[in-house]
Amino acid sequence: MAHTFDVIVLGVGGFGSGAFDHLARRGLKVLGLDRFPPGHDRGSSHGETRIIRKAYFEHPDYVPLLLRAYDLWHELERDIGQTLFHRAGLLISGPPHGEAVAGARLARDRYNVPLEEIPRADLPARFPGFRIPDEFDAVFEPDGGYLEVENCVLAHARRGERAGGVIRSNETVRAWSSNGRTVTVTTERDTYSAASLVITAGAWAGTLLADLRIPLQVVRKPLFWCPVRSGDYAVQSGCPTFYFDLPRGSFYGFPSIDGSTLKVAEHSGGAPVDDPLLVNREIQPDDFPRVGEFLREHMPQIDPQPARHSVCLYTVTPDHHFAVDVHPQYRNVAVGAGFSGHGFKFTSVLGEALADLATTGRSDLPIEFLSLDRKALHPTTM
Ligand SMILES: Cc1cc2nc3c(=O)[nH]c(=O)nc-3n(C[C@H](O)[C@H](O)[C@H](O)COP(=O)(O)OP(=O)(O)OC[C@H]3O[C@@H](n4cnc5c(N)ncnc54)[C@H](O)[C@@H]3O)c2cc1C
Question: Of 71, 149, 302, 365, which has fewest CB within 10 angstroms of its CB?
Answer without folding.
Answer: 71
